[in-house]
Design goal:
Radius of gyration of chain B: 19 Å
Helix content of chain C: 25-40%
Largest sheet of chain C: 5 strands, parallel
Number of strands of chain B: 9
Order of helices and strands of chain C: EHEHEEHEEEHE
Largest interface: B-C, 25 and 21 residues
Chains: A alpha/beta, B alpha/beta, C alpha/beta
Number of helices of chain B: 13
Strand content of chain B: 5-15%
Strand content of chain C: 25-35%
Distance between the termini of chain C: 6 Å
Strand order of the largest sheet of chain C: 3-2-4-5-6
Shape of chain B: globular
Order of helices and strands of chain B: HEHEHHEHEHEHEHEHEHHEHH
Largest sheet of chain B: 5 strands, parallel
Oligomer: heterotrimer
Chain lengths: 433, 309, 167
């Protein structure tokens, strides 16, 4: 088997040109090259452009003008689509992920994917390993049936099924005592509690951020303080129990400040923001556009700015797609009846590039940190010893190419993307071989 | 007026549309003086009233309006069962459209439903109230009533008192009055009046401020405790703090202000008994004008079921 | 374009008033103009009749809601208020219109007027009769007959700033 060489690629996190030699898949885990502190598998050699000796008949990919970077890891995906078989959900989400530059994702539990027992995890892993083009890691349930009342068998999930992250989807556990005890118990198992901060009593039957949009459309407002109180509460629980808390879908400026202070105090807390909350505000809802119905709701410009600042200074560890496919019919219903969420996998890297990196709001290094290294580190923790590599493959990104997002270009099986009909920049090549 | 299929919000109308509908409403009201209170304008047209929320007043007002235009009216009673079974609005409308309806008058507790129905069928859809979103026919009858009373709306001051947060009436009526040049203010408990930067309407806090502002019309909203799951304010306080008490009625009389209310009135909550007898209490005018305004709306819409090709 | 000027029109109105005065049962005469030119003509005729010591009640009808072509139009015309402040029961009514052509407006007017009561007698008068009837309706009086005209436009001082019939 001949080695594959990539030449004149721009290493995205550093901006300089490199050549490298990819290792055949079989050798991948043994051959590591460190590029700027990022341990990577699959690489035999890497050096500044032009310094590589390339054998005559080698397979060479000329990557001039293209960016080379680790593929993305998405820490927040829902893959279930009502009315579709589990197998189809897995296939479509896997294909969509690869399109969007995502090699691996954390799949959150949902009614069809109830990861509160060994059997459903086994069957999911089996189907995913055969059918999915991307790596799928299931997040175990915090509570049985995600009811928020009774703990799931954490030891079974963790020890025998390799679960690292626990989550009840996007729901805040109904019983806080259950959560407190779960964090005491499972914190010792090094499990991560991924929870969306909320006070359900304050957000019941609410749909939009308190704003002119809420008034104009006559939709009940969802007070930001619900998330902020929830954030405080969860951080106190993490502090008290020592468990690793991962705050999902942070959406308000005040939440960012609360997390920043907690991190300064040394609380074991990480946080994520969905791309939608960095890019969009409630005005996008316009005249009841259900694509922009999300939980938490889209907020104000000041919140978007604070969240972006949080990503840049490391308060927010990860940017996630919050991929949630909905059937076209369900999103055609009225705003109150329609389900929440947007899809994000198909377009993830091009959207990040077009709306954050290209306009200069984030650097490539910020992006690699928030979309590759941090999320993978939370979902698939490695031993902290030096040199144990990420399992992320590399991808090539051609920023010169643009394409318009059309119904045909989406493979995730749903159309509820905010980018439909819009031009996004950049084309992803993944996998490289 | 440019051909338009539906009436969902006041916002969607041009100033010209608003004036045309109001002007025609005057002509419609004149029909009530004839010995035959009916015109053949919508002869042979089918009007369906589809109310997912109980309402006797608005529904009968629309029905009388349709009858006076000679349309055939069908009342669709939604047995709670089909709603409980979770039939989507789309499927209900498909069923109804096979009955060849030209106009659908819809009320629903969810904001935004009429727009969904309007997109889905070619009948003219008239929003008879959706959640806390809009109630355009109420806005027209209110504007009509004020214009009838004062001749001109521009320059008039109207204060809307009560639960602004949950009120589609407050939204639509304040909008049409502002479009017609009136000054509008809101007054009510803090938990029920969204901030001015969201509404674009100034808030008055007390009756003292209302009397100082000297509005021409005091518009009281119904306290809709049936629609509020958990209370936004202590109900026992309401009449004393925000209602028209006998003492306030005397001041209203002294300043010659008019009183309006979309009905049905909770006596002893929004209004004291004596206020209903007050000479400038326009509640009954509103009801009569409601029929004329709704006739004008029905008349000016062009259902997609009429072919012009 | 041939035109009837204001002198032609006012002469015609005088003759017209003479005809009405001769026929009228003064006790219960009503002139009902069809909006938006017939009502102006009706007012002028009433003034002319007054000079002849003939009293007539004034009314105006907007017949839009009775038109038979509402569904054929893309948009519905704006409505004007009809004005009929008296009972029509037992009255001698004269419907006054500017141009009589197809007869459809007159048909709608007849339908309209009967919904206000039961007049003893109804006549149809017009300023210009263009013939080309589509319905079995004839004018009882026409000030001018312009059978060959392609198109007739009536301008009246009160509405259009001048008196003229252009055809």
């Amino acid at each position: 088997m001949t080695d594959t060489y990539i030449t004149h690629a721009t290493w995205a996190p550093g901006g300089h040109q490199i050549d490298l030699c990819l290792a055949p898949a079989a050798e991948s885990l043994d051959t590591i090259v460190l590029i700027e502190g990022i341990p990577l598998p699959n690489i035999k050699k890497a050096c500044p452009s032009g310094a590589m000796e390339i054998p005559e008949h080698a397979h060479v990919i000329d990557a001039s003008g293209k960016l080379l970077m680790p593929a993305l890891y998405d820490l927040h995906t829902h893959i279930e689509m009502p009315g579709r078989s589990k197998r189809e959900c897995i296939i479509r989400a896997g294909e969509a992920a690869i399109r969007g530059g995502v090699w691996g994702m954390l799949v959150l539990p949902s009614p069809a994917f109830r990861f509160d027992n060994g059997a459903s995890l086994d069957s999911f892993r089996e189907t995913a390993s055969v059918r999915s083009a991307a790596e799928m890691t299931p997040a175990g349930c915090i509570s049985l049936g995600m009811q928020g009342l009774e703990q799931a068998p954490y030891n079974t999930l963790a020890a025998t099924r390799g679960v690292h992250v626990l989550s009840d989807g996007d729901d805040f556990p109904a019983d806080i005592l259950m959560l407190y005890r779960a964090m005491q118990y499972a914190g010792e198992l090094e499990l991560v509690f991924a929870v969306r901060a909320d006070v359900p009593a304050l957000t019941k039957h609410t749909y939009v951020h308190p704003s002119a949009t809420a008034y104009k459309l006559g939709l009940h407002p969802c007070p930001p303080c619900a998330e902020e109180i929830g954030t405080e509460t969860l951080i106190r629980l993490a502090e008290a129990t020592g468990a690793h808390l991962h705050l999902q879908l942070v959406s308000t400026a005040e939440s960012v400040r609360i997390i920043r202070h907690a991190k300064e105090r040394g609380v074991k807390v990480t946080a994520e923001v969905a791309l939608q909350h960095l890019l969009f505000t409630h005005e996008k809802i316009g005249d009841y556009n259900t694509v922009f119905k999300t939980v938490p709701p889209l907020r104000d410009k000041a919140d978007c700015e604070a969240l972006l600042e949080g990503v840049k200074d490391g308060t927010i560890d990860c940017i996630v797609s919050a991929h949630t496919p909905c059937t076209p019919f369900s999103k055609k219903q009225d705003f109150i009846t329609a389900p929440v969420g947007m899809t994000g996998l198909d377009t993830f890297l091009p959207a990040l590039y077009t709306h954050l990196v290209e306009p200069g709001l984030l650097t490539w290094w910020d992006l690699v940190r928030a979309c590759c290294l941090n999320p993978e580190g939370i979902a698939c923790p490695r031993d902290q010893e030096e040199g144990v590599p990420s399992t992320a493959p590399l991808l090539l990104f051609d920023p010169q190419v643009s394409h318009v997002v059309t119904e045909e270009s989406l493979v995730c099986g749903a159309l509820n993307t905010p980018f439909l009909g819009q031009e996004l920049h950049g084309a992803v090549t993944l996998p490289l071989r | 007026m440019k051909p338009r299929k539906d009436l969902i919000t006041i916002e969607s109308l041009s100033d010209e549309d608003i004036h045309t509908i109001l002007d025609s409403a005057v002509a419609m009201k004149e029909i009530f003086t004839k010995s035959v209170k009916k015109v053949p304008a919508l002869k042979g047209k089918s009007v369906l009233t589809l109310f997912y929320e109980p309402s006797t007043r608005t529904r009968s007002s629309f029905e009388v309006a349709a009858h006076r235009l000679s349309a055939d009216v069908t009342t669709f009673t939604l047995s709670t069962s089909s709603v409980v079974k979770g039939e989507s609005v789309h499927d209900t409308i498909d069923t109804l459209m096979s009955m060849k309806m030209d106009y659908i008058i819809v009320r629903h507790k969810n904001s935004g439903i009429p727009a969904v129905i309007a997109r889905h069928c070619n009948a003219s859809v008239i929003n008879a109230g959706d959640g806390a979103h809009a109630h355009p026919s109420q806005a027209f009858l209110d504007a009509f009533t004020i214009r009838e009373k004062y001749g001109e709306i521009a320059g008039r001051r109207v204060v809307i008192v009560g639960d602004i947060l949950h009120s589609r009436v407050a939204r639509s009526t304040s909008l049409i009055l502002r479009r017609l040049g009136a000054q509008v203010a809101f007054m009510g408990p803090g938990s029920l009046v969204p901030p001015g930067e969201h509404t674009g309407v100034a808030r008055l806090h007390t009756w003292e401020e209302v009397f100082t502002w000297a509005p021409d019309v005091i518009y009281l909203l119904r306290v809709q405790n049936e629609r509020i799951e958990s209370p936004f304010f202590p109900a026992a306080d309401y009449h004393q703090t925000f209602g028209v008490t006998e003492e306030r009625l005397r001041r209203i009389e002294a300043q010659g202000m008019s009183i309006m209310h979309p009905g049905p009135v909770n006596r002893g909550v929004e209004l004291c008994d004596a206020a209903m007898e007050y000479e400038h209490c326009l509640v009954c005018n509103q009801v009569e004008n409601g029929i004329a305004a709704r006739m004008s709306i029905l008349y000016h819409l062009t259902p997609g079921t009429l072919s012009h090709d | 374009m041939p035109t009837l000027n204001s002198t032609d029109i006012s002469t015609a109105l005088e003759q017209w008033a003479d005809v009405i005065a001769a026929r009228a049962d003064a006790e219960s005469l009503g002139l009902v103009g069809l909006i938006s030119h017939g009502d102006v003509l009706a007012r002028r005729l009433i003034a002319a009749l007054e000079k002849r010591q003939v009293q007539a009640r004034y009314g105006a009808l907007d017949i839009t809601l009775y038109r038979d072509d509402l569904d054929l139009r893309k948009e519905r015309p704006a409505l004007r208020s009809s004005y009929l402040p008296f009972s029509t029961d037992g009255m001698h009514l004269i419907l006054v219109d500017d141009v009589l052509q197809s007869g459809r407006t007159a048909r709608a007017a007849l339908e309209t007027i009967f919904e206000y009561g039961r007049p003893a007698r109804v006549e149809l008068h017009c300023l210009v009769d263009r013939k080309h009837r589509e319905l079995p309706i004839q004018a009882d009086y026409a000030a001018f007959t312009l059978e060959s005209a392609e198109k007739v436009r009536v301008h009246l001082q009160e509405n259009d700033g001048e008196d003229a019939v252009i055809y």
